[in-house]
Write a structure and sequence with these properties.
The protein is of the alpha/beta class. Helix content is 22%, strand content 22%.
């Protein structure tokens, strides 16, 4: 895919004043689960207003269809496979055993301390940094947020369905810094408390540049909402949870205005992967996309994304170009007056021309690669309008004749889709366009060979006893 000549040169200059940065990252929220992305039942007036005041990205991707790998990509700007944050071990009876696609409360590893996170880049530029919410990149001290560039941390260190037992109590822990302050965490009040913590950070840091990373625990199962929102939506408890998150977005935006930093702040909203559709009404919707969490169909890795920066990102605009969470690191680094690391391969690209709505701006990605949650090799690639799925075993989610959801690894044929005319991946064109199949397959093989040649290790195994959040 040829890029316009203007994008082959040095990218246009970023605005002179380094912005504050807020990244709101939800968990398992579907593509359709925002009003401005087509939700028929869930009300999201604050996100809708954010889109009307900023830019909506329709072709925005995460680098994995499950939690930990996706978060690693956001923090480092790299495909999870490049930094070996895609397949994880657990400690069972004193021995490391493999097979996990995310980190667990008995996982001894995490994001390698030598990786350079977005928080570390911004901290070096003088930013105050805070992580409020779900981390899921390792719960041992050497992997937690305060060892990865954040000044403070408040939240659950992994998924909310991962429990530790203390006495007769079981559930996920709530941490501040490196200490557990509540066990089990009261999940019904998490979104409200995360919001209060985020607003407190904004108010305290308004006189210097700040980076707020707000990765919500919800709507990952088990769902929980506060009494204020429980039972209020037309979409059951799942809708209640999303509407409370929307309230949280509104509180963050309100705090930015009240502190006089609204015009100096870039706010990004997206989700870590697609919805858990096999749980029916307890999960979200990725329509009109196919499938959801755990798959490499569009519903698993294409996410709703909204970006807002008054006066810098054109209001009410829509971007249909391919962009990814990996692009946030190099883009924000340059906006802050810094740069992405140059001593290692970074897969993300500077997408400021897209964000700024510059005439003729096109995606800087020749292709985007889909790595399945259980594999180390890519099984799909998108280049321009074409998306190729390799033949072989892949996870598929479907409903059987009894209406039951099935999520299973099955052998699937080569599939080729035209995403411009068939975003739901319903019509396989592989037999009609064998030349496209061949070209994309070769592209995928070349990229993966280079990725493996320039890969980096996962964090070394630590001692579970050093963390109060270990199982």
């Amino acid at each position: 895919m040829a890029l316009p000549a203007c994008l082959k040169k040095t990218p246009p200059a970023a605005p002179g004043h380094p912005p504050n940065v807020v990244i709101i990252f939800t968990d398992d929220q579907g593509y359709q689960d925002v009003g401005c992305f087509g939700s028929p039942l869930i009300r999201t007036p604050n996100l809708d207003r954010m889109a009307s005041e900023g830019m909506r990205f329709t072709d925005f991707y995460v680098a994995a269809s499950v939690c930990s790998p996706s978060r690693a990509a956001l923090m480092t700007g790299c495909y999870p496979q490049r930094i070996n944050m895609n397949v994880f071990t657990r400690l069972v009876k004193g021995e490391e055993q493999g097979g996990g696609v995310v980190l667990f409360q008995n996982s001894p590893r995490g994001l390698h301390p030598n990786e350079i996170t977005l928080a570390e880049i911004l901290k070096r530029r003088g930013y105050a940094t805070a992580c409020v919410g779900k981390w899921h990149l390792g719960h041992l001290p050497e992997f937690l947020p305060m060892a990865q560039g954040f000044d403070s941390y408040y939240g659950i260190p992994y998924s909310n369905d991962m429990n530790i037992r203390r006495g007769d109590k079981s559930g996920p822990p709530l941490m501040r810094g490196r200490q557990v302050i509540e066990h089990p965490a009261d999940q019904a009040t998490l979104t409200r408390r995360y919001t209060e913590e985020a607003v407190k950070f904004i108010r305290a840091g308004k006189d210097r540049p700040f980076f707020l990373y707000l990765p919500h625990t919800m709507p990952h199962l088990p769902l929980a909402a506060s009494e204020t929102f429980k039972g209020n939506s037309r979409r059951g408890l799942y809708g209640d949870v999303i509407e409370e998150i929307d309230w949280s977005v509104g509180e963050v935006l309100k705090a930015l205005k009240e502190c006089g930093v609204d015009g100096d702040t870039l706010v990004v909203f997206t989700s870590d992967n697609g919805p858990w559709i096999r749980f029916g009404d307890r999960g979200g919707s990725a329509l009109p996309l196919r499938a959801g969490k755990g798959t490499i169909y569009e519903g698993g890795m294409r996410e709703p994304c909204i970006m807002r920066w008054p006066g810098k990102i054109p209001a009410g605009s829509v971007c249909h170009q391919v962009a990814t969470t990996m692009d946030l690191l190099p883009t924000i680094a340059r906006l802050a007056g810094g740069e992405a690391p140059t001593d290692r391969v970074i897969d993300g690209k500077d997408i400021w021309p897209l964000m700024a709505g510059m005439p003729g701006a096109a995606s800087p990605h020749e292709a985007f690669y889909y790595y399945p949650k259980e594999a180390t090799d890519p099984m799909a690639v998108r280049s321009g309008k074409w998306k190729l799925h390799k033949a072989g075993p892949r996870f598929k989610t479907w409903q059987n004749e009894k209406g039951q959801w099935i999520h299973r690894r099955v052998d699937l044929p080569t599939e080729l889709y035209d995403l411009e005319s068939d975003v739901g991946e319903t019509t396989n064109l592989a037999e009609k366009h064998p030349e496209v199949v061949t070209r994309l397959a070769r592209m995928m093989d070349r990229f993966d060979a280079d990725l493996k040649k320039h890969s980096r290790p996962v964090g070394p195994a630590g001692d579970l006893a050093t963390s109060p959040a270990s199982a």
